[in-house]
Here is the input.
Amino acid sequence: MPLPDPDDVLRTYEAVAQDFARARSRALFERRWLDRALGFAPGREVLDLGCGPGRPIASYLAERRCRMTGVDGAASMCALYQANVPGAVTYHEDMRGLGLGRRYDLILAWDSLFHLAPDDQRGMFATFAAHARPRTVLLFTSGPDAGEVGGQAAGLPVYHASLSPDEYRGLLAQAGFEVLDFVPEDPNCHGHTVWMARYVGG
Here is the structure.
């Protein structure tokens, strides 16, 4: 089977937004990582990149008194996010090259960064830094090692890619982030490979 095209990801999520939202687990297996990130973050302003429908992650953070800003390249996902996270600020924008002119305490790219092609992922670290203040926490997921694979979203094929752990470490350092934790295929988080870093640059 051919590898899905990374340029089709946003169109796919636009088409399946409602089905994806209905099928998305509400178990909040991410909770331990979210709570840890909040413990390190200097405040409660959260930038949620590739925000999707907002449940369960953004709604949980909003319940924890976080002020949520969601960004998604699929308009239908933005509409769901706005409905599911009352009071959130939502932008229908591609995260690549994003420039909101604001800085946040916690930046999330959970199950979103890995939909970008490798070169686009490399470019995102400058975007993360542009939206970070001192001690901002960055929380994102990747694959356990470098490679490109096909996945599914509500039954339709979608692209996934990862850089190597060493390359992610280098990109984080170059962008001014220090790694707080890295757990490949975390058995307590449905096998997600999770990175948590803190901004210490400029």
